[in-house]
Specification:
The structure holds two protein chains of two kinds. Helices cover 59% and strands 12% of the residues of chain A. Chain A is of the alpha/beta class. Chain A has a five-stranded parallel sheet with strand order 2-1-3-4-5, sandwiched between helices. In chain A, strand 3, helix 3 (63-72) and strand 4 (79-83) form a beta-alpha-beta unit. Chain A is elongated. By secondary structure, chain B is of the alpha/beta class. In chain B, the strands form five sheets. In chain B, strands 2-1-3-4-5 form a five-stranded parallel sheet. In chain B, helix 4 (74-86) packs parallel to helix 12 and helix 17 runs parallel beside helix 18 (537-554). Chain B is rod-shaped and about 160 Å long. Classes of the chains: A alpha/beta, B alpha/beta. Chain A binds chain B through residues 13, 15-16, 18-20, 22-23, 25-27, 57-59, 62, 84-85, 105-109, and chain B through 429, 432-433, 436-445, 447-452, 455, 462, 466, 469, 472-473, 476, 516-517, 519, 521.
Amino acid sequence: MNGGPLIHVVDDDQSLRTALLRLLAAAGFEARGYASSGDFLLQPLPERPGCLLLDVRMPGPSGLELQAALQRQGCALPVIFLTGYADVSSSVRALKAGAVDFLSKPIERKALLEALHRALERDARQRRARADAVQLRARFATLSVRERTVFDGVVAGQLNKQIADELAIGERTVKSLRSQLMAKLGAGSAAELGRLAERLRQLSDA
Amino acid sequence: MTDAPMALVCAHIRATGITASYARRPATSPGRLVGARIAAFLLAMLLAVLAPPLLADAPSRNVLVIYANGRLLPANFQADGGLRETIRTSSARPVSIFDEFLDAPNFGGDAYAEIIANYLREKYASRPPDVVVAAGSEALSFLLQQRSTLFPGVPLVHLAIPLPLLRSMHLPRDVVGVPVEYDFSLTVEQALRWHPQARRLVLITGASPWDREWEARLRREATRFSGRVTVEFLAGLPTDAVRRRLQELAGDAVVFTPGYFVDGDGHHGTPRQSVEAIAAAAAVPVYGPFSSFIGSGVVGGYLHTFKDMGRQAGGIVNALLAGSAPASLQLPALMPNSLQVDWRQLRRWGINADAVPDDAVIDFRQPSLLERYRAETIAAIVALLLQAGLIASLLFERRRRRRAEAAVHLQRHELAHASRLAIAGELTGAIAHEINQPLAAILSNADAADLMLESGGDRSNELRQILTDIRRDDLRASAIIQRLRALLSRHQAERQAFELNAVLDDVASLLRGEARRRQLRIAFKHAMKPVMVAGDRIQIEQVLINLILNAMDAVVGIADDRRTTVVVAVEQIADGMVVVSVRDRGPGIAVEHLPKIFDSFFSTKRDGMGLGLSIARTIVDAHAGRIVAENAAGGGARFQVELPTARLPLLTAAPA
């Protein structure tokens, strides 16, 4: 079970925390409890899929503040907020900041489990996307300088001839470089190459 | 101008009318009598004003009254009063009245008569009497014997002479008067009516000739009662013997006595004196024939009053002085008598007032309080009424004040309650959260248990743990609700001993959620030992919550985490006093606000009512405590609530 999702429960109310951990365990999840935001930050975060169940109001840094801190650190674990106050402004702020859900206490089991599934799905998706990006970067890194130039030209919409003129090489050479780089990047068509280029640009922007 | 005299006359008529009808009931209409008197008086006044020059030199007329007995005989006083009241005298026609006393029966005999006659002759040579009055049998006998040489030709008026004696004498025509007949039978008849149980009639007489005459008469006349009662005589006995015999008398006896001048031992006295001794010794009612006996202890009898006799004689004297011939006077054949009684004796012998004939003269009637002290009584009643009124108004005032106090008390109570409602309102969100928290835990625990049961297998240990937790959380929620309910309740202010640290715990539980909501901390520092305070626990709780909420307001928006802690501490400063302090590290209290911080409607908050601290002070005052505000050293405000401690209840003090 070591690679399965791990759910982090941050709530200062020990009683509720215990109950939630018990519920999650019964529902087949692995979960860990923390009494405060500080507690959570002090623990080393294992590189495992999962999500956070976060109480909004706690002594010390609030749940919203912890969410913000995690985002700054680049931790992308999805967050489900728990609150005793039906507080619209907090919930809007939380959801804008990317929270999966905003559940009010007492928490209904169905709502909780649904939110958990969504959060874990999102986490999985994010992890897949991150893995894809890493793979893409790695493949891109295998391109030679000439192949990279040809890639830039193809992505910019230049014809083989134009690229050949620019590089002062033969058109045939451009063709072979082009097929080489497409094989390296795993792209089947020029359009696909364009999509890859777009993703790379997004990754370098982030 | 005419009203005043009329009013005076009316007043006079009323006043005199009362006296007249009081003293003697059978009379002419008192009003008319008085009217006539007043008319006569006014006429006399008129004459007095007009006539003096004409009548100034009229010679004085002399009337000589010779009494048979001594000067101090009560009968003589009364007769004298009647005479002087009736004989008309004025400056125009002055009349002088002289009195002489023969002192019978102490003195007597021919030689004595001679001496007295000489004495009178000499004495009155310069002022010869125009009329002589003989008062009493001995006086009449003396004068009849001596008048030819003593006062020849002077008309003689007799007074108080018994009819039988007069019959035995042959009076000259110029000796006139109205005879009396001292009653015996009527009086005894009346006595027997009043004392129907009487079986013995005791008659007491003395040893002097006069006394013997009475004895002889009584022996004659008493026979008529012998059929009804046993007649017994105590005749000519020494006074001591009489007294002893009287003391032995039982309630079935009635005494009648004319008194006596001389007793069996030869002791001299007056009939009045003897009857006083008799009445004092007798345990039964005593009756007598003389009006002078009234007041001596006798019940009374059918009597001639000596005063009436005096009046009668005075009238005759007036007529004679006016020049009427003695023989021409139309005089009644006999002095009328009337039933005369001593009111006190009626009371003593239990004689009902209804049994007294209407025309009886009642002496010594003790006037009622109102009659005797009319003005005083009215004044006293008025004073009493005023006092009662004053007391009533004071009571009313007191009642009003009590009501007002009760109203103020109630108002204060209501205000304190309203303030608690406001506090509770402020805390609602936080408290709801505090209750929600265990509810959430309960739900999640229940869900967990549900899932465990679905998954099968023996997980009873875990389930048991879950149930324990659910129970605990349920109690936690209900405890908060109870505290909230206590805070909200409109309870009667009570006075009971409670523990201050426990109050801090309650306050902490009510404010925990609020502190969390505001993201700040309250540090509660309990006393090391239990501290008992007497009073209303909820109200003290209210004061602390109020102070802590103020403190939390003071530190709102302060970023420094170290400064957002509110410290609540119990400090025992001295025996008998405990202090709870609430301290914040906010901006403190402006110096100019310090003096009025506990005033009503004083607030520095934008939406503050300015009642919280005022109510806090009212509550602390009602607990005989003190509340103080100050700026703490190192910044922030510090409120101290000083409360007198109560004695530890034995249960708490004793080791368990």
